[in-house]
Design brief:
It comes from Candidatus Thiomargarita nelsonii. The protein has one domain. It is 11% helix and 34% strand. It has a six-stranded mixed beta barrel with strand order 4-5-9-12-11-10. It has a three-stranded mixed sheet with strand order 7-6-8. Strands 1-2 form a two-stranded antiparallel ribbon. The longest helix has 17 residues. It starts with 11 loop residues before the first helix and ends with a strand. 17% of the residues are buried.
């Protein structure tokens, strides 16, 4: 439940995107020959393994060696020091004695705290949920992998398991968060017949599968510049209607 929610000077896509980001809901697509499915979720159970064989070996290219099976040929892994605690606070004038706080801490770096007010919630349970989502958003990018593969089935929102990497602790299950695929076959066009053979590249970014994924809050929220006039509305026959808190309801001219 939101106290007030409005689409203002933004596209439908931006409006929906920023609401999903605030709630920690992600989405990805399943592509089929006869249809495409939009999948939305907020937990790891929404993800599926990539098509075909989901266990992909790491094979570093060497002169004279050719891998017969799909493999990962470059892989980099980074780790950041990020906030390990999120604290949110708000105030509900209808319940002034209620201490509206929401806290969530990680296992490490709890002294690096993100504190925000107003937290945009009216009940303590909602505050705890939002703090959890915010912390998971920060923790989701704490450890990230990136690489390139010959596998044609990689896609964002799906997971795979890497095997045979020289460093053993990197051999585990990963969730693909970004994927870029490019291919060319110039020889099929008569005017490009002499330009060489086909090319294919598949690069990706991923996070450990045991880390909950939350989308970054990157969609900008519109800002109302200056003051606006509106029409006071209420029950028919009432000159000026106020509720028990002395508030009036208004309708903007653009609504």
């Amino acid at each position: 439940k939101r106290e007030y929610c409005v689409q203002y000077r933004e596209s439908e896509f931006d409006f929906i995107s920023r609401l999903l980001e605030e709630e920690g809901i992600f989405y990805f697509f399943e592509h089929h020959n006869n249809k495409h499915i939009l999948v939305m979720g907020d937990s790891p159970s929404a993800h599926k393994a990539i098509k075909g064989e989901s266990q992909i070996i790491f094979h570093e290219p060497r002169p004279g060696q050719v891998a017969d099976e799909a493999h990962i040929y470059t892989f980099n892994y980074t780790q950041e020091i990020l906030s390990g605690k999120v604290s949110l606070k708000d105030y509900n004038f209808k319940k002034p004695a209620l201490n509206l706080k929401g806290d969530k801490t990680a296992d490490k770096n709890t002294e690096l705290e993100v504190y925000d007010y107003p937290g945009k919630f009216e009940e303590p349970g909602r505050g705890k949920h939002l703090a959890k989502v915010r912390l998971e958003e920060y923790q989701a990018v704490k450890k990230e992998g990136s690489g390139a593969t010959t596998c044609t089935h990689f896609a964002a929102g799906f997971f795979f398991t890497m095997e045979e990497y020289p460093r053993g602790d990197f051999n585990k299950k990963y969730l693909i968060t970004q994927h870029q695929l490019s291919a060319s076959q110039p020889q099929v066009l008569e005017e490009s017949a002499g330009e060489g053979g086909s090319s294919f590249s598949s690069s990706f970014e991923c996070i450990p599968f045991d880390v909950p994924y939350r989308p970054d809050r990157v969609t900008p929220k519109p800002v109302v510049e200056g003051s606006q006039t509106a029409i006071v509305v209420g029950p028919k026959g009432e000159e000026i209607y106020t509720n028990e808190h002395g508030q009036v309801k208004v309708q903007f001219h653009w609504d």
